[in-house]
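Quarterly update from the structural biology core.
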Amino acid sequence: MSRTCDICGKSPMYGNKVSKSFNHTKRTWRPNLHKVKSEIDGTTRSYKICTSCLRSGFLVKKVRVPKEVVETDKQ
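Predicted structure, tokenized:
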């Protein structure tokens, strides 16, 4: 499924929204997923992981190093 954490397998949960007058309607709770690039065994892949796995340190984000800017002297 597309809305599933690649680390822990957290997926949407289903239940009822209960109003003040006790009416029940169906609703979903979706996990808070983020796309993260990580390097494992020398290969870079993008993973969809939930924020609780990201905070727990199960996956380390790949650090992007900016390209060096070469300054030219034009006068």
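The two ends are 58 Å apart (CA to CA).
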